[in-house]
Write a structure and sequence with these properties.
It is a single chain. The chain has 530 residues and is α+β, with helices and mostly antiparallel strands. The protein has 18 helices and 21 strands. It has three domains: 210 residues, 3-Layer(bba) Sandwich (FAD/NAD(P)-binding domain); 109 residues, no CATH class; 135 residues. A seven-stranded mixed beta sheet has the order 8-7-16-17-18-15-19. It has a six-stranded mixed beta sheet with strand order 10-2-1-14-21-20, with helices on one face. The chain is globular.
């Protein structure tokens, strides 16, 4: 069993001191000729591609009829064409990590997926009527910050880019992109460098070192919400999320985010991976800590030598392995969200692909979300992917992806939030907020609509209705996040395990899961970082 499953961080440290071999990682025991991967989400696909590239026979079992998991697709036909909606993540960063999965098969990403750089990365709109376009190009962004907030803030931006770049380089290889068997394995030059760079101070403190304008602070610290923690509580290491999007840049995929798992699955199938779509796993057959097969809801037994579980870790642990959740350290979940997917006849000239609408409140927003209350002064994300890819909607029409953060189910229950009752009224609140923030006529333009509430996220298999999984509190970060190895031959992957939440992280988690089975190929890892 992984040293971190079923252990508090203190106990995890005690239980692994005598078992870690420097420079090596723990791997599954026994044969690994045939690996079953449950779930064709981005993490499961990442793992499957690497396993196939390493010569394993791989079977992917997926309950839906298409790959993608949270990065799914809803298609709605209307007169004149169809609307195509991405059901999950809308912001794509670190495309090299996507390319890395294809490289494991000897394939080129460009042969399967068309990616395009977004500029601006985001458009930030503030309650005082000002706006800031975020550019990945440092010179262009420094000029934009100078126009927006003055020369001192522009200089602070250049220093911020240099700092988070160094933080990223110290963090990615030793803290993110590796399997961690013990906190002791983190001791070294990179950890000392992370501490010196303020990686374990608060994210807000780090940001405030470089920016004095609160509006600029917001655009480089809102990413803490992805980690499920307020900037005032998040560790400075999570400033690398701001680096990943606002500095390294954001891309879009032709055909939407769902085109990513479709392309990954196509490449995997080309190299012999068998996909069993429309097949739901009911339980894992295991004894003595060793999995021997998965059993489907139809009663079929699919044997395996090793097993990768891509469902949300708490759900996989309790429902598939039949183990009580207390065997995983008690988890605190990230805020959830109310997601409205709208197909609309209404367009807005000059719109950006991604727009963040900041309210006046900031600290209060995070306090409300983590405390179990709905935002009284919302800050929200509106994505309009047809700005970049008109083919996602009928001619002349648009797709909108409107995300309002909300408390998780357990947090909201403390204050009586019942989505079976409040969902209709909250929809009107969403539309009213959009109208007041510059999206005049938004409600009247809607032709097609799909709404996902925290209850719906839970029904889709996300613990506590939280699509961003467990929060990245210190006790749920790095080696203290639930580990990915259970028993002799079961490996978890996805946002619920190490390294954490977000498309880049789950792609990495797929590589880490595969390496628990195949071991680390130093030659390949060097290619991954060339």
């Amino acid at each position: 069993m992984s040293a971190f499953l079923g252990a508090t961080p203190r106990h995890a440290l005690q239980r692994t001191v005598d078992t870690v071999v420097p420079g090596r990682i723990r791997t599954v025991a026994g044969p690994t000729d045939h690996v079953v991967v449950v779930g064709a989400g981005l993490a499961g696909l990442s793992a499957a591609m690497r396993l196939a590239g390493a010569g394993r026979k791989v079977t992917v079992v997926e309950r839906e009829l298409v790959p993608g998991g949270r990065a799914g697709r809803i298609t709605t036909k209307v007169d004149g064409g169809e609307y195509r909606f991405d059901t999950g993540p809308s912001v794509l960063t670190m495309p090299d990590l996507i390319a890395d999965a294809f490289d494991a098969l000897g394939e080129d990403l460009e042969d399967f997926i068309v990616l395009e750089q977004l500029d601006p990365v985001y458009r930030a709109k503030y309650a005082d009527g000002t706006h800031l376009d975020v550019h990945a190009d440092t010179d262009a962004m420094a000029e934009e910050v100078g126009r927006f907030a003055g020369a001192a803030e522009a200089d602070g931006y250049r220093r911020f880019v240099d700092h988070v770049g160094r933080l990223y380089r110290a963090e990615i290889r030793s803290f993110i992109d590796r399997n961690i068997d013990s906190p002791l394995s983190l001791v070294g030059r990179d950890m000392a460098r992370l501490i010196a760079l303020g990686g374990f101070s608060k994210m807000s403190t780090l940001t405030e070192r470089f920016f004095k304008d609160e509006r600029v602070q917001k655009i480089f610290s809102f990413q803490a919400l992805y980690a499920g923690v307020a900037p005032q509580d998040a560790l400075g290491i999570y400033s690398v999320i701001a680096y990943m999007d606002s500095v390294a840049g954001v891309v879009t995929a032709r055909g939407g985010v769902h085109a990513i798992p479709v392309g990954m699955a196509a490449a995997a199938a080309k190299h012999g991976v068998e996909f069993r779509y429309g097949t739901t796993v009911a339980t894992v057959e295991h004894a003595g800590g060793r999995a021997s097969a998965v059993i489907t809801t139809d009663g079929e037994r699919i044997a395996c030598d090793a097993l990768v579980l891509n469902p949300d870790l708490p759900v996989a642990f309790t429902e598939l392995l039949g183990r009580p959740l207390r065997r995983v350290a008690p988890l605190t979940y990230s805020p959830s969200c109310y997601l409205m997917l709208a197909g609309s006849a209404k367009g807005y000239p000059g719109a950006a692909h991604h727009t963040i609408l900041f309210g006046r409140s900031w600290r209060e927003v995070f306090a409300e979300l983590t405390g179990g209350r709905l935002m009284s002064d919302p800050s929200i994300l509106v994505s309009n992917p047809t700005v970049s890819d008109p083919g996602l909607a009928p001619p002349g029409k648009h797709v909108y992806h409107v995300l309002f953060p909300t408390p998780s189910l357990s947090a909201g229950a403390k204050h009586g939030l019942d989505w079976t009752k409040i969902a209709p009224a909250y929809r009107e609140h969403v539309l009213d907020t959009l109208e007041r923030r510059g999206y005049e006529g938004f409600g009247d333009g809607i032709e097609v609509e799909h709404v996902t509430t925290p209850l719906d996220w839970e029904a889709q298999g996300m613990a506590d209705g939280a699509p961003f999984a467990s929060a990245h509190l210190f006790r749920q970060t790095g080696p203290f996040r639930p580990g990915n190895l259970w028993g002799e031959n079961v490996v978890f992957t996805g946002s619920g395990t190490q390294p954490g939440v977000g498309v880049p992280m789950v792609l990495i988690s797929g590589r880490l899961a595969a390496e628990r089975i195949t071991g680390v190929d130093p030659a390949y890892r060097s290619r991954a970082w060339r």
